[in-house]
Amino acid sequence: MFKKVLIAEDQEAANMSLRITLERLGIADPKYVFYCDDALTWIKSALKQGQPYDLLITDLSFEEDQPQRISGGEELAREAKAVQPELKVIVFSAEGRPDEVDRLFRECAIDGFVRKARRDAEHLSQAIQVVYQGKCYISPDIKKAGQQRNTYEFSTLDLAIIELLVEGIPQKNFPVYLQERNIRPSSLSSVEKRLNLMREMLGVSNNGQLIAYCKDIGII
Fold first, then answer.
1. pLDDT tens across 72-121, in order?
2. Pairing of strands 55-58, 5-8
3. 43, 48, 51, 55: CA torsion to nearest 10
4. How many helices (H) and strands (E) in the chain?
5. What torsion, rounded to 10 degrees, do the Cα atoms 186, 81, 129, 60 define?
6. Among candidates 131, 127, 120, 130, which has minimal Cα distance to 94?
7. What are phi and psi of 112, to 5 degrees?
8. Comparing 182 with 19, which gets the higher pLDDT?
9. What are 88's strand-pairing partners?
10. pLDDT more than 90, % of the chain
């Protein structure tokens, strides 16, 4: 389980809920910050000291009670990943439109999204455990809404991955083919993350079902 966790959240009630959830998972002494600038500073400092954070949990919206260079969680997630690509990031927010959630996964490389709503403590606990296993997590209500509205937007990377699946290319060889096509990101971990996200958002459990779904909607 994660050992070193940083939480960027400016609402005390949410912090209390997070603290209880982390304690139940056996995560001791998480660090809390109220501002995104402070969060990035702590991430950089820990990395420089050779004791990097394992997980960042951040809200998207923060009160603007004092000037900040980083105004919200989306920018924080993007900059944190740029500084420490292996850092896991879970967004914990009241916002949750499926198209916006998908964009956060695509553009900010987040690893999980939990919507602040009924049963959010349970979902947050699930998210931490799933992300620790190297997979992506999306709150069930967001996945359901996305499936009902069919809002998932396939990126260039998604389409390339699906084409390679159809061609029967071994997944371990995907990075080479993606690099040849000048498609980024192309690492195996990025491929695995996108596959997991597509399956989560589309409500399918394996690559065969993913291919069948894509054939049904006519993208392949």
1. 999 999 999 999 999 999 999 888 777 788 888 888 889 999 988 778 88
2. parallel
3. 20
4. 10, 6
5. -120
6. 120
7. -160, 155
8. 182
9. 55
10. 42
Tell me the pLDDT tens digit for each residue of 2-53. 989 999 987 766 667 788 888 888 888 889 998 899 999 999 999 999 999 9
The sheet carrying 88-93 orders its strands as 31-33, 5-8, 55-58, 88-93, 112-115, 137-138
Residue type, 201: M
Q: How far is CA 193 from the centre of its chain?
A: 9
Residue closest to 200 by CA, chosen among 87, 111, 90: 111
182 sits in the region (left: phi over 0; alpha: psi -120 to 50; else beta) called left
Spatial distance between the Cα atoms of 112 and 136, rounded to a whole number of angstroms: 5
Give tens-digit pLDDT for 23-34. Answer: 888 888 889 998
Residue 112 parent element (H or E)? strand 112-115
How many other CB atoms are found less than 10 A from the CB of residue 102? 22
Q: Give the CB-side neighbour count of residue 153, counting CA atoms within 13 A.
A: 13
How far is it, in rounded angstroms, from Cα 217 to Cα 33? 44
Structure-block tokens of residue 32: 């809390």
CA–CA dist 187, 182 (Å, integer):
12
CA 39 and chain centroid, separation: 17
List the one residue out of 58, 63, 55, 49 whose CA is nearest residue 14.
Answer: 58
User: At 138, phi and psi to the nearest 5?
Assistant: -135, 135
End-to-end CA distance of the chain: give it in Å, rounded: 39
Question: Can you name the residues that pair with 6 across neighbouring β-strands?
Answer: 31, 56
